[in-house]
Design a protein that fits this description.
This protein is an alpha/beta fold. It is about 40% helix and about 15% strand. α3 packs parallel to α5.
């Protein structure tokens, strides 16, 4: 394990699951007189760098908000550009294989192209046996949508007699979520200056520490992640206790 910041916290103080909202790509581009697509492309480069670094410092799980269910409201040309960029990005993640990173995708696939869905399935299958960090990429994901889908599936199982009311507890319901097999989020990071969670991992962030910073995502560095992890390591996590 290595850490770019000399004030390295002990491994026991590292968050096991970090979630990041990749915010600020468009504003980064606007400040430079560039197209929003240029900001998204730069943000994709930053994401690969940060994901690989998180794996190297010992993070067990990293979740990233790449495209939300609300992002379809953006201009059609921007959405098309984002989808094309996602396809290109998934063609160039060989470094994750070299570093033993397991890649999974969360979110509703119905509105995505067959080409993109096929790439996602292929990557998940190829990385299924890897034992390093779990990298969960959220594409067409929304926390409310995830919960509603789980409610529908639970209701169907109940109606068909596969589960009784008494069996439906938190653990059972969590198993019905897209993110059911992921650990709870320990640290949620939101760069870009906004202070909201934007419908991301609503169930999993119940007791997450939330770290906001003003750095726009394309400018985010390993040292920025270090600072967030150091901040987290000093938190007193009581989980409702004293």
């Amino acid at each position: 394990m290595f850490f770019k910041n000399k004030r390295k916290p002990p491994e026991s103080a590292l968050p096991g699951h970090i979630a990041i909202i990749l915010d600020g790509n468009g504003r980064w581009a606007k400040k430079r007189g560039l197209s929003r697509s240029a900001g998204h492309r730069k943000g994709a480069e930053t994401f690969k760098k940060i994901a690989l670094y998180a794996n190297r410092i010992g993070v067990k799980c990293l979740s990233a908000y790449a495209f939300s269910t609300e992002n379809w409201k953006r201009p059609e040309d921007e959405v098309s550009g984002l989808m094309k960029l996602l396809e290109e990005y998934l063609d160039n993640i060989g470094e994750f294989e070299k570093e033993n990173v397991r890649v999974i995708f969360i979110g509703e696939k119905k509105r995505l192209s067959k080409k993109l869905c096929d790439k996602m399935t292929e990557i998940e299958e190829k990385s299924a046996e890897r034992t390093g960090m779990i990298l969960a990429i959220a594409i067409n994901y929304g926390g409310r949508q995830e919960i509603v889908s789980a409610v529908r599936n639970t209701a169907k199982l109940s109606k068909e007699g596969f589960v009784s009311d008494e069996q439906i507890d938190e653990a059972f319901f969590e198993s019905m979520l897209d993110t059911g097999k992921l650990p709870d989020v320990d640290l949620l990071i939101r760069p870009g200056g906004e202070k909201r969670i934007s419908n991301f991992l609503l169930w999993k962030i119940s007791y997450a520490e939330i770290y906001f910073c003003d750095t726009l995502w394309p400018d985010y560095t390993e040292k920025d992640l270090d600072e967030a992890v150091l901040w987290y390591s000093k938190r007193n996590r009581r989980f409702g206790g004293v």
